[in-house]
Amino acid sequence: MSNPRPAVIGADVPRVEGIDKVTGHVTFVDNIEPPGMLHGMIRRSQVPHGRIRRIDTSRARQLSGVYAVLTGEDLLRMDIDPYIGPAFKDQAPLAIGKVRYAGDPVAAVAAVDRDTAEEALDLIDVEVEELPAVFDVQDALRPDAPLVCERLVPAGTFADLIELLGGGDVPATSNACFQYKLRRGDVAEGLRRSDRVFEHTFSNPPTQHSDLEYHCSIAQWEASNRLQVWTATQSPSYVRIMLANMFRLPESRVRVRVPYLGGGFGSKLYMKLEPLAALLALVAGRPVKIRLTRNEEFFTITKHGLVAKLTTGVTRDGRLLARDCQIMWDTGAYADIGPRVTHKSGYTSAGPYQIPNVRIDSFSVYTNKPPAGAFRGFGIMQVCWAYESQMDIIAREMGWDPVEFRLKNVLREGDVQATGTVVHSLGLDQCVRAVADAVAWDYREASAPHPTGDGARHLVRGKGVACSMKAVITPSVSAATVLVHSDGSASVLSSSVEMGQGSDTALCQIVAEELGARLQDVAIVHPDTDVTPYDLITAGSRTTFHMGNAVRMAAIDARSQLWPTAAELLDAAPDDLTAQDGRVWARTASDRSLTHGQIMMARFGGRAGTIEGHGLFETHHGSTDLDTGQSDRVTAHWMCGATAAEVEVDTDTGQVRIVNLATAVDVGNAINPFACRQQIGGASVQGTGPALLEEMLFEAGQLTNPSFVDYKIPSFLDLPDRLQPLTVEDPHPDGPYGAKGIGEAGIFAIAPAIANAVADAVGARIPSLPITPEKVLRAIAPP
Amino acid sequence: MRPFDLLQPATVDEAVALLAQHGEDARLLGGGAMLTILLRQRLVAPRYLINVADIPGLNAISSDHNTLRLGAASTLRAIERSDTIRARCPVLAEALRSVGNIRVRNVATIGGHLAHADVHLDLPPVLCALGASVVVLGRHGDRHFSLDELFVGYYETCLAPTEMIAAVDVPTPPPGLQGVYLKYCSLSPNDWPTVGVAAFLRADGERIAEARIVVGSVSPRPLRLTEAEDLLRGERLNSGAVAEVARRYGRAADPLPDIRGSEDYKRRVTEVYVRRAVEAAATRAGLA
Ligand SMILES: Cc1cc2nc3c(=O)[nH]c(=O)nc-3n(C[C@H](O)[C@H](O)[C@H](O)COP(=O)(O)OP(=O)(O)OC[C@H]3O[C@@H](n4cnc5c(N)ncnc54)[C@H](O)[C@@H]3O)c2cc1C
């Protein structure tokens, strides 16, 4: 009995946790309450930049019901390393010495309930001497700009931040904390030889992740100097390591558990509230929970604002000859993972194209604003906004069909990418063609208005396309364990976090496939660092590819321990065995089969025992030339996607409505096609927010719209009339069953596709996000 | 949120007596949709909340030949779904469909809506155009105010702290008066209005016998320009006159700049939406 099509892989199985989620049966961190738990709350700076003169907590300490009050000064007196930060050790859980943005935590309280804690916060007197502040990246790079951070102390945490590894603890000389550099060919010469050279600047503001669940962490110290943490994080393994460092504990004495997450999108990476909860719990001698409010979310982590200047040379026959990218990332008051965002998105800042001459200088820049970190796409949305806007300007000015222009230049199998790394398995050409077809692409050379059918003169339509690619984070490590229990059912131990993306389902499918088990007999053990093995982070579209490989190896390992027993019972060679739907049989004698439970029973002589399978998947980075950024292997695999949009513009008001939004992503091989389309559809809708609506607005460093009343995210009423999530399959030899990561690629190109469609409709180019009606109206009919 | 005592009066007289007793320490609670936000943000911190939403009979919607009366505790959703309203003031029911969302409309009350006096409310332009008034109870007994008198400025009404809105009276529109409410949201459609325009026209043959145009969200109080309305009276519908009326409203608007648009932008879309609203009302009135 052969198996032409794998049984579980490739099937549209529903989410394993779906019913529990929609019926309200899953636990989130905020549902957990250890006995005696206190509530921690944070007092924040009102001043964007200043020296802390004095913080008087005496009145707060006297309030009944208050168990702990902490300031940055207090941290210095404890036997800990108070500095955290994944790239630079530039941030403490509570500001020490200086506040660097309006919203910076300066004191914290743990009390019996939130009302008491809030009252105590009001009783804290904070005296800050204001310093000159800087809010704009370009201002921040001026030689006379006030320094936001005085010293650069590399954290030395991540192997992929090569440029930081050798770096020492140095006084800062500018607000640029990190530079990514890429040099390929000779850009000056390439521009000189070009038939036309285009120079444009594009920008986007900081925005929010807006995950439904707020940041929430609980810390509890056990008598034996053992720290237990429940936290809403995308990086449990990292949190354990960093808490161990902070409190100088062995990792084995720090236990980090993560139940389901109510969304992450990058906001819950690295350490956020965990250290402060642990510090308050230590001082209070009771478990402490800190849960932010929506308002506080705005002051915790953001998506980077960016200013990008692109200079591009083309030849008359439609080829890109040279491109220079000067990029400034607004990383806010603390670097968080900004340098890595700058670094990783640096690889492809010139776009997914074959360009012989490329220069990229990309800077991560401090400003006195809330810190910016990871956001779905890790910087690719921002750089794609710039290069795909410019691609369209070039195409339209040269009279080229924007789709043809892209297809002529996109990277294909065997091409050498700007970093020097050869491209393999990149279905970008197919993605562009798929989305163009999906909106019935019809290029008209003259940008004449395209009225709608209904005769309303003020409504015109246009179409736009955009595409993008990304390198997956490399090197990286994922480990997993599969346990087969005495009845033959299996548990999957993995530190990947289920945050709505569907990874539990994909990982269960892979294990079910390899064991030949029924899907319902496979269950996930959620991250618990005492139990589940190391995983780098749940981010960067890496789980299906990396953890997918790890659990697959673990399942194969478990199977290889089980099958000798089965072979003996079936009188067959182990190689001859196959399994599906919970039964194992010999291909040569398919009339006899065994259940996994029967095999376990035979192996252990009764209802007893465990089989343990282990899997470890690692990827490696090639060596890199630090002056040119050239490397034979910057990534384990490339991801890509394309979007086409059709919009309708109200020329009286400038309002943009999305009529049709088609996004195609190369998924390699869809382990769960339905889940893939959900990911792509979700990413598409999320991408329309920063494109049309979202912007954190500041006045003199004060955020003026820190709530969903004045910060709008897409609602059901904002959905495109038609949403088309499409998959393209170009299998990757190293992916499990050929699969690639797809969590981000659906969002990359949404904004430029919409901007390009608006330009097609009304001839107006909006170079700064979001594309508000006011900007559109000003562009088509200046006041 | 500061702790407070929730008081449950059984009648409006009791509610008014409690208001008089506690003065500034008390606050009326309608649906609470807005007040809970103010409490949570600690913009207000009353010791007592006097719940008027559950006073028996205060949510009645009644009518006689001349007037529709909405009890102050009527929820927006109940008004939206009332057959009487749909028959007599269809534009009010239409406008309600765009207010907040169904969850908000299920709890928010008409009394709380008007008393909140946010300039970005959807109903004041419609109710002003319909000539509505409020019945107010307090220490001084009954008082009646037109909505024009009620709204004084940003978040400000003419009510004394010891007074409450007991009902809203909407006169029966004269036969033939047809209108629309057009709401423009410059960001998400799921938002408060950037500008809201109520326009009503009554036809006399081919001529406009009466025009009422009230604009919300772009000035401290609902904006009505009777001189501009007069430009239409006695005329046939013509685009020149409509454009002139729209221009006047655009010029008279005095909006606050915010994330939804600059002053200039809000003036421009006011002009656009006044024009569109008058055109739509004309179609309904059989004038176009
Ligand atoms: C999420 C959300 C979205 C919204 N969107 C819109 C929108 O798009 N368009 C729109 O027009 N509105 C919108 N609203 C506002 C809504 O329409 C109501 O105006 C608001 O909820 C107030 O009504 P309430 O009954 O909840 O009043 P409450 O919150 O109970 O009270 C509001 C104020 O009125 C006072 N008050 C209450 N009852 C009386 C009374 N009888 N007499 C005197 N004073 C009284 C209270 O003391 C308080 O100061 C929205 C509200 C929310 C929460």
Itemize the secondary structure elements and their pairings:
The complex is a heterodimer of chains A (783) and B (288).
Chain A: H1 18-22, E1 38-44, E2 50-56, H2 58-62, E3 66-71, H3 72-76, E4 98-99, E5 105-111, H4 114-122, E6 125-130, H5 137-140, E7 151-152, H6 162-165, E8 170-171, E9 176-184, H7 187-193, E10 196-204, E11 216-222, E12 226-231, H8 236-247, E13 254-257, H9 274-284, E14 288-291, H10 294-297, E15 302-303, E16 305-314, E17 320-332, H11 338-346, E18 357-366, E19 372-373, H12 380-398, H13 402-409, H14 428-438, E20 450-451, E21 459-471, E22 476-484, E23 490-494, H15 503-515, E24 522-525, H16 543-570, E25 577-580, E26 583-586, E27 589-595, H17 596-604, E28 611-619, E29 638-650, E30 656-666, H18 673-692, E31 698-699, E32 702-703, E33 722-728, H19 750-762, H20 773-780
Parallel strand pairs in A: 1-14, 12-13, 15-19, 17-18, 23-24, 30-33
Antiparallel strand pairs in A: 1-5, 2-4, 2-6, 3-5, 7-8, 9-18, 10-16, 11-12, 11-14, 16-17, 20-21, 21-29, 22-23, 22-28, 25-26, 26-27, 29-30, 31-32
Chain B: E1 5-7, H1 12-22, E2 26-29, H2 35-40, E3 48-51, E4 61-63, E5 67-71, H3 76-81, H4 83-88, H5 90-96, H6 102-107, H7 110-116, H8 123-129, E6 133-137, E7 143-146, H9 147-150, E8 151-153, E9 156-157, E10 164-171, E11 177-184, E12 195-204, E13 207-216, E14 223-224, H10 226-232, H11 239-252, H12 263-284
Parallel strand pairs in B: 1-3, 2-3
Antiparallel strand pairs in B: 4-5, 5-10, 6-7, 6-10, 8-9, 11-12, 12-13, 13-14
The complex binds flavin-adenine dinucleotide.
